[in-house]
């Protein structure tokens, strides 16, 4: 890995001329020697006896129906870690967007919770390599996000509520090699999925790159097992049939045999590259459906494409006489990938009611 761009264990000892910087509510610009200087902020009351330098501005207040710019960075450089936390009630109504090198169309446009593998507005710990969610709602991204000219990260509050957001964006200013791609992420939902249709995880990717991950928040609307469906990767001109076809939903996410362990229960798990960290059970009253959260990171096995890529997944259960049943579930997904720019503009997110968890 390029020294300064990514520091894995294999090159952690190498000395680099990259300059380490960090943006937070205590240093909105990330400038050297400018942290902790605030005299106004959400911590002004508790720090009134201590003054400047004593946690005066630990967070921001996101105003209703507004967008806040979390970071504007002049490159070249690479974002290496993002930490955030806010209340779970707002995880689907806060939208994260990222723009590289002054582009008008965002490369990342995903609801806050879904981006961090928490798509149901309920806390779920995740213990994976690029995404870690820790008690009680500390969201961490270690996706490498390089840029050559500039980086801009915004968060939009589409709700009618004001709420606090704590955040820190850690990055390095360093040269970026020519063969390094740009990070992208896209959210899509089928609610409900049409009968005998497939859920499209992403379509319309154009360029040269590699697909690195999938998160799905899956809400079932039928009794019985729901995960017989195949995931399919259509690449570089594939039309009716894909180049890569999976064998079943739980297989793709690294499990087997209905995720059933012990017998009669779903076995939750969270590993470096794949997991089923969230199972939300009915409560016998208003929570009538089962809901699941699953991720699969193609870090050791990226899906390479040279011109285009489309990814779909079937929702498939069982009906009488040993036949498959096409399901009509509530499926929301995030696709993660790297590619060369410019990228094709993907569909914009739907409105607040279409995003809502219901």
Structural features:
Jelly Rolls; single chain; eleven-stranded mixed beta sheet; eight-stranded antiparallel beta sheet; 358 residues; mainly beta; 41% strand; 2 domains
Uncertain segments of ≥5 residues (pLDDT<50)?
none
Large-scale geometry: globular
Q: Strand content of the residues, in percent?
A: 35-45%
Could you estimate the helical fraction of the residues in percent?
under 10%
The total count of helices amounts to 3
> Which structural class is indicated by helix and strand composition?
mainly beta
CATH structural architecture of the largest domain: Sandwich
CATH class assignment of the largest domain: Mainly Beta
Report the CATH superfamily of the largest domain.
Protein of unknown function DUF2961
- Per DSSP E runs of 2 or more residues, the count of β-strands stands at 25
Provide the residue-averaged pLDDT.
Answer: 96
> How much is the radius of gyration in Å?
21 Å
The structural domain count equals 2
């Amino acid at each position: 890995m390029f020294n300064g761009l990514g520091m894995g264990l294999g090159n952690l000892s190498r000395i680099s001329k990259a300059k380490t910087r960090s943006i937070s509510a205590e240093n909105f610009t990330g400038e050297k020697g400018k942290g902790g200087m605030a005299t106004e902020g959400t911590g002004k009351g508790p720090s009134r006896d201590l003054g400047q330098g004593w946690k005066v501005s630990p967070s921001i207040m996101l105003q209703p129906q507004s967008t806040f710019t979390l970071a504007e960075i002049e490159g070249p450089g690479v974002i290496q870690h993002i930490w955030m936390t806010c209340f779970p009630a707002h995880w689907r109504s806060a939208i994260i967007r990222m723009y590289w090198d002054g582009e008008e169309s965002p490369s990342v446009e995903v609801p806050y919770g879904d981006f961090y593998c928490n798509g149901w507005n309920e806390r779920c710990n995740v213990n994976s390599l690029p995404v870690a969610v820790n008690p009680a709602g500390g969201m961490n991204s270690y996706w490498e996000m390089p840029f050559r000219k500039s980086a801009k990260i915004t968060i939009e509050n589409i709700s009618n509520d004001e709420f606090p957001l704590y955040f820190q964006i850690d990055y390095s200013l360093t040269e970026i090699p020519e063969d390094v791609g740009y990070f992208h992420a896209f959210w899509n939902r089928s609610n409900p999925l049409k009968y005998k249709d497939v859920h499209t995880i992403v379509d319309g990717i154009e360029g040269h790159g590699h697909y690195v991950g999938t998160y799905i928040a899956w809400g079932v609307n039928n009794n019985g097992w729901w995960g017989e469906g195949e995931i399919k990767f259509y690449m570089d001109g594939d039309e009716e049939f894909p180049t890569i076809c999976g064998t079943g939903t739980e297989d793709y996410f690294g499990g087997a045999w209905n995720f059933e362990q012990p017998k009669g229960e779903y076995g939750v798990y969270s590993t470096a590259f794949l997991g089923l960290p969230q199972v939300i059970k009915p409560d016998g009253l208003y929570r009538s459906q089962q809901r699941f959260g699953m991720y699969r990171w193609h870090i050791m096995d990226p899906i390479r494409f040279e011109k285009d890529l489309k990814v779909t997944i079937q929702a498939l259960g069982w009906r009488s006489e040993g036949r498959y049943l096409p399901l009509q579930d509530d499926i929301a997904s995030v696709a993660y990938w790297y590619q060369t720019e410019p990228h094709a503009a993907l569909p914009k997110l739907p409105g607040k009611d279409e995003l809502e968890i219901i």
